[in-house]
Amino acid sequence: MAGAVLRLMLLMLAGDLAVYRMPNCAQYRLPGCPRDLNPVCGSDMATYANECTLCLKIWEDGHDIKIIRNEPC
Fold first, then answer.
1. 52 near 67, Cβ under 8 Å?
2. Is 50 helix (H, G, I), strand (E, B) or coil?
3. 40 with 25: CB under 8 angstroms?
4. Distance between CA atoms of 25 and 8, rounded to whole angstroms?
5. How deeply is 6 buried, as exposed, middle or buried, from its count of CB atoms within 10 A (0-12, 13-18, 19+)?
6. Contact of 62 with 37, CB cutoff 8 Å
7. SS3 of residue 69 by DSSP
8. What is the pLDDT of residue 6?
9. Is the Cβ–Cβ distance between 50 and 36 less than 8 Å?
10. Residue 13: is its pLDDT beyond 80?
11. E-state strands within 1-73
């Protein structure tokens, strides 16, 4: 039991239990994105200028990219 608790704590510290969120791509008129700088970190470990540019990447490449956090990677 103590080993399981320790493992869970180590995973939390490592960030492996991060809750990713889906970008709200429906709110954007792709392929045009606003030029505002509001960086987000994608689950592909790339930093995008804003949520719309992440949606543009999804739209262009067809990859399922989620938002890890609302700041650069």
1. no
2. coil
3. no
4. 33
5. exposed
6. no
7. strand
8. 54
9. yes
10. no
11. 40-42, 47-48, 67-69
19 confidence band (pLDDT: 50, 70, 90): confident
Tokens coding 13: 């510290």
Asked if residue 2 has pLDDT above 90, the reply is no
Radius of gyration of the chain (CA): 15
Count of positions (residues) in the chain: 73
Percent pLDDT > 90 in the chain is 71
User: Can you read off the two tokens belonging to residue 51?
Assistant: 């949520």
Beta carbons within 10 angstroms of residue 23's beta carbon: 21
Q: In which residue are the tokens 């990677």 written?
A: 73
Q: Report which residue type is found at 11.
A: L
In the chain, the domains with their CATH numbers are: 19-69 (3.30.60.30)
DSSP 41: E
